[in-house]
Amino acid sequence: MEETAKNLNEILDLNGLVGVTLIKNEDSIPKDIETLKDPLFYCVMLKKAASEKKSFYAPGEVHSCLRGKSVLGMGEIPEFEKTGKFYVNKSSVANSRSASHFVNSVPRVKDVKGTLIQPLEDAKDPDVVLAFPSNARNAQELMHATIFQSGGNIKAEFSAPYSFCGYTTARTYLEDVVSFAIPCGAAKKAVRGIGEKYTDEEMIVAIPGQMIQQVARNLTKLGSVKERMKSSNNE
PANTHER family attached here (predicted)? Predict the structure, then answer.
């Protein structure tokens, strides 16, 4: 994936580009991959891999966000989510009924042992590729490249919580579709713990791993991208 990652980064202004594999059998983990020992939220792990250019395996026990952990298939739905108190107390919803719709609507994976997270250039066969375009134009170009052959459209499905775990990683994994979302408040807050940030301008675009090489090739064919790059070269 090294050439694919290089091409994507040359064309787009990305704040991160990572490959994620949901591990159901730990025997499939490459022998040279480090196991993460420090507990972190999944959304923070993604930024860590992107910014530090490090690959690692994160077993279920180091996924410290219980909500994300359950969405990604490594644990049960935490009790504070089932009751709805978590979202009501945060003033994220009007009442517990509304909170239950948050919890019951999100895509959920089952029977996962951990997550293999890598900079895309080091990934071999990721289930999902997550890109973090720094601006809406680059996000639009990337999404356009995913439908260059097929035409049609991309259906949005996201909510206030679960941006990284549910509505991009889990949805793309389960439905084999391109997904996009906006970084949620919990992710923006949590990532500051490692000295990083998700900006107010960036988006999350999730692409099935088997599509990413073709998407990178498609980007170079898009008229809008050619025009933008020609304009940039003339400045």
Answer: BLL4979 PROTEIN, DUF169 DOMAIN-CONTAINING PROTEIN
